Amino acid sequence: MKSKERVKQLVEELQLLPHPEGGFYKETYRSLDLVKTPSGERNLRTVIYFLLTSENVSKFHRIKSDEHWFWHEGSALTIHILEQGQHQKLSLGPVTLSQSFPQHLVPAEKIFGSTVDEEDSYALVSCVVSPGFDFKDFELFNKEDLLKEFPNQEAIISRLT
């Protein structure tokens, strides 16, 4: 099955919707247990499917919780993290000698986005957020603001904003 056909199948079968940061998603679990956070009560944990293709990106954003990523299929997905003036890349995918692993943690409050760098491809992952995801805790960045803080990272900032 070709990549575009598989993406269409995944979007339909998993009932994925466009995500504001890019790609497609579907929430599959939201715990009923609540925890107190500095931002108010949040569900203990949430889980989503997230699908990204090489034709789009997950734009730089930040959330107030830890986000644990799990790779399922397709090509490796690159998680780009900006912190302390630096650009760090994590490869999420099949275990390989090139340091790709099937799971990665993005700690709370990190600025991050993601890409599928293999042409004409996609990556299907799951993300577990704890305390649970809430759009009130979601911050999407623009190029100008990021360049003020990370002036030496113009190439990746231009790509992911």
UniProtKB/TrEMBL annotation:
InterPro entries in alphabetical order? Cupin_DUF985, RmlC-like_jellyroll, RmlC_Cupin_sf, YML079W-like
Give the coiled coil ranges. Answer: none
Instruction: Say which domain of life the source belongs to.
Output: Bacteria
Which parts of the sequence belong to the DUF985 domain?
A: 8-141
Tell me where the signal peptide lies: none
Instruction: Return the PANTHER family for the record.
Output: DUF985 DOMAIN-CONTAINING PROTEIN, RMLC-LIKE JELLY ROLL FOLD PROTEIN
Q: What name does the UniProt record give this protein?
A: Cupin domain-containing protein
Q: Which organism is it from?
A: Algoriphagus pacificus
